[in-house]
Amino acid sequence: MTDEIYYTIEKTATAEFKDRGSRFIAYACPIRSVEEFKLQSSEIRKQHPKATHHCFAYRLGLDGNSFRVSDDGEPSGSAGRPILGQIDSKGLVNVLVVVVRYFGGTLLGVPGLINAYRSATALALQLTPLVQKQVEQEFKVHFDYTQLNDVMIMIRQFNCRVVRQEIQLFCDMVLAVPNNRVEEVRYRLKELKNVEIIA
Fold this sequence. Notes:
This protein is an alpha+beta fold. 32% of the residues lie in helices and 38% in strands. A hairpin with a 2-residue loop joins strand 2 (13-19) and strand 3 (22-30). It is elongated.
């Protein structure tokens, strides 16, 4: 990850790994917040209410400092850390992996568990395309409706994204602007009449 790009996933993928009767079902999901993590995790728990363990790891945010791991009753360090290790080995952010385990009757030991959770995660991450995204800054723009066409041309020209918009006689837009184009976009918006950058 650099100041201009980062890697993540856009689609959920599921993969299964089996070892000595135990089933490890991995779900790799894109998330953008802790709230999305809670929703995804809850949904997976509802799908597998009889599973023995629901172990997970996620890494959020472009700085990569927001992460969490859970062994959910497995021996310490045998599930959550290996899952996070696979996320990190691919340099991904804004990703959650939940691995659901159905116990098969045979104890795998810590090395066996580490291998199983790592393998299930690796399989799921292989099944979903990794995407490169631009690091963006958001700011709000307020303008007269007569300037809508000029603003939209500028948005396309600088590869910006409209996050939210309210279009009436006066328009409000929240734009996501690629980091490497922020100064150019600000300059172009200031050149337009009746366009105000709020934040």
